[in-house]
Amino acid sequence: xxVLITYDVNTQTAAGRKRLRKVAKECTNYGQRVQNSxxxxxxxxxxxxxxxxxLENIIDQDMDSLRxxxxxxxxxxxxxxxxxxxxxxxxxxxxx
Amino acid sequence: xxVLITYDVNTQTAAGRKRLRKVAKECTNYGQRVQNSxxxxxxxxxxxxxxxxxLENIIDQDMDSLRxxxxxxxxxxxxxxxxxxxxxxxxxxxxx
Lengths: 96, 96
What we know:
The structure is a homodimer. By secondary structure, the first copy, chain A, is α+β, with helices and mostly antiparallel strands. Helices cover about 30% and strands about 30% of the residues of chain A.
């Protein structure tokens, strides 16, 4: 299924900027960055629980937030991109 | 239907920061800010075309991007939030 992960990390402190880098780095292990704080991840429920757990432990839950959108399998007509750096279909780029 | 709007605006210039403020301000007319660059908008297709057209004309399509995710009507179990509650505007406090 396609899972969209979006995050807000408060970068007013050095610790916050470190959390932001960690979150972004971790997300790259699971999916495709389509915008600065938006990743599209093609993964099953097990992988999803895994990344959720990892990210939950990185963020400061009083200052930062994560959102997960479960787009299912039939997502191709549910996503539209306008402007720079168009995202591409993550299912086409998987190298196994 | 629920439409998720996410955006990346390049804020390296004053013009970019102005575009960012305009995009955010426009989005508040159509939905609920859930993260800094993520809005959830409950709207019909007409409204959606309207906001898309407005935002397309604000952004610099070589530097910025918009993404629209169409979550349909049955979206309640498709969204999960972790961490700080949405509803704050950090646009003015971003450290770039």
